[in-house]
Amino acid sequence: MKSGFVTIIGRTNVGKSSIINKLVGEKVAAIANKPQTTRTAIRAIVNRENAQIIFIDTPGIHKPKSKLGDVMVETAFEVTNDVDVLVFVVEATSNEIGRGDKLILDKIKEINKKTILVINKVDLVDKSKVAELIQLYSKEYEFSAVIPVSTVKNINLDVILDEIESNLKEGPAYYDIREYTDQTTRQLVEETIREKILKLLNDEVPHGVFVEVEKIKKRKTQNGEPIFNVDATIYCLKNSHKGIIIGKNGAMLKKIGTFARQDLEKMLDIKMNLKLWVKVKEDWLNSDQFVKKFKLQ
Predict the structure, then answer these.
(1) How far is it, in rounded angstroms, from Cα 59 to Cα 73?
(2) Which end of the chain is more exposed for a tag (fewer CB within 10 A), N or C?
(3) Domains (ranges, CATH) in the chain?
(4) Hey, what long-range contacts does 215-218 have (CB within 8 A, 24 or more apart)?
């Protein structure tokens, strides 16, 4: 039996969370076509015949503009120190090693751990472009492997798992083999609601949003069917954002709630009664009370 911890690191929006969800076969990380979707270090568990791989999805590396941004970048780099293997994800559409990727490369060189380079989104470019990128990055660091992948076309995803397993040492299963994440139900609810906001609203509003579950209670319906009663608050930065989140006659808030509930019922295999409220909390991005929730535990 082999086991170990693996960090997936990369710039914002390179597809780290999509890769994790595909490898795990379950939705454990929020996905949206927007930068900085992941805010915390999320653990996802892959159980193979002779191995247990614990992935840690990290916030994307970006230039911080708030206390929350500082904590996100700090978390991403802090996680790299205590894992067995790093998976560094870059985009196949890149023409050069940009500032964000250079920053990550410098960290990889500093800690000198086994690192697998994953070139994502190869379905968007031709093979010669991928070959150029491989050559470019291989000059910078001696990677354990370089794997071109596509989550859209399911290209080479199993190769990532095979390569990780070959780099792990013998060890115990750290989690029950039926588990696929260490996130609590509360965290899954909060992240799923936030993901729907990211997908449904324009660029200005979503990244100023924070979701907090106020109450979560399991009960039985009159028919004896189990159901979760969940109350959650969506915090935003401005009154104008609050109006956008609620929408005309509450239509947008209802849509967010419906999409989140549908996803959660599939994920948790239980009915859910989800109630949402929206409150304004100006500049929460720089509030210690809120930001501490995102620090690495």
Answers:
(1) 7
(2) C
(3) 2-170 (3.40.50.300), 185-294 (3.30.300.20)
(4) 216/185, 216/186, 216/189, 218/270
pTM of the model: 0.64
**CA distance readout (Å), 64 to 55, 78, 288:** 24, 16, 16
